[in-house]
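To: structure subgroup
Subject: Chain for Friday's discussion

All,

I'm putting the inputs and outputs inline so they're searchable in the archive.
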Amino acid sequence: MKSKLLLFSIIAVGLILRVLFINSSPPALYGDELTITLDIYSILKTGHDQLGNFLPLTFNMSAGRPAGYVYGSIPFVAIFGPTAIGVKALSILSGLGIIVLLYLLGTKLFSEKVGLLSAVIGAVSPWEISLSRVGFETHFALFLALFGIYLFILARQKAILYIFSAFCFGLTVHTYLTYKVAILLFLPLILWYQNGFIKLSQKNKKYFLSGIVVFAILVSLSFSQTFLAGSENRFFNINIFSQSSIKSKIVQKINFERQITKLPESLAKYFHNKPVEYTKVFIENYLQNFSIDFLILHGDRNPRHNMATMGGIYFVELFLIFIGLVTSWSKGRRKLLFLVFWLLLAPIPTAIVDSPHALRSAFMLPPLILLSAIGLAAVFNCKNKLLTGLILLLFAVQFIFFIQKLYFLAPKEYSNFWSYSAKLASEIVKNSQNEFTYIILSDRIDNIEFAYPVYAKIDPSIVINQNKKKTLLSGNKLKRFDNVYIGYIPETQVEKFIDSLEGSVLYIGTASDKRFLTDPETINGLDGLEALVLKKRL
């Protein structure tokens, strides 16, 4: 009962940290959240995505998005509407589910103390909190993967759980791109931990083979979407083998080295070639995932992924992970190796794409937290009050710095990363729509073509129609929502375009439009910089 009360308290704290100021930190929805919201709302209302495709498994508005997060969020958008909480609810609940699963895994693998400490660290983790407060597909995928792992371990006692575990793993690959690789790499490891494929299939043949069939069907469906429906076009465009800058740099390096080497040409090609150079790029990317800069100091330096622009774990956790590795080596070597190899496998998909990335590398987080919890449990067990007090003090200090930046600084400092100007423009339109014959929104405002339909809660059928065929206005093709028009107008032609319209006009553009307009009004963003330019003609 005491453990249950403690776990409930930890979950309550985790929930508060994840929903506190959720509408102001971050201050707006960013591009992917906006397109996800439009697709969810459109599926809910019409059965079609925003491009008019019926119940797709790949959403093409964002270079081929897997379907998991969209369909998983439908109940929440049905309750809360196309709002911030509607699109983030699944991610918030995933965070709470991950806290519970960390407790269950820590308890199952090690002890209840390790389980409770894993839940505590997960509840206050900068990486986990940042993932929870945004509608990130990777966060739901992480929850599904972790749930699948826990069910697979439990299936040793209750074999039917192999089917449910396979279902979780299969849904994971339909949710975020890097898990298509990560799960396939991870399965041999968990099979090894559970004593291998042959023993499992012989002991629990019916359920184990049924799980394989379920997983194979879901994975086949996912990979068919990848190659036939363009599910991962973005992955194919940004991986290290397709990036033109990396290609060019490698070709130049190889040609230069082959020209100046003293080796005969017949031998030089074995030392200076693309496989060697791409291997170096991959290894460099991979090792950066374990760097102090990524894990402790700055993360991946993207304020959307780690809003406080701090590392994913606290500095004190490095010390705890070391203690955990040392103290657990003689007690449960197989369990420890399972966590270590999990940690080593997790960044491989990220390294194929690019340098460390808090979303693509999120599968690293559970083993890091579990190892930290093992170390913290060892510190508590040694009953050294000075050491224990110092560890807790360091945790508290770093946590306070993280919280103050997350809630009070980052929302203003990094507002431009969250398409805040699009939200601001949408609010202006809402307050002014009845005052003008035409309201023109320039698509130079970051993500405005997705933001306005979301914030204005435009009927999805209208969005679909405008995505299929834009409206012609004074020679320009624009998306039309009542008297609001969104699209591209050359900066130098804005004044002329406004003059060509009959009736009152409100034009809303970016600060770059200012120099081409007569007597424009400017509006600042949360960071104090000019965010929007308004031109009114009554």
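Points worth raising on Friday:
The longest strand covers residues 530-537.
The CA atoms of residues 43 and 223 lie 23 Å apart.

D.
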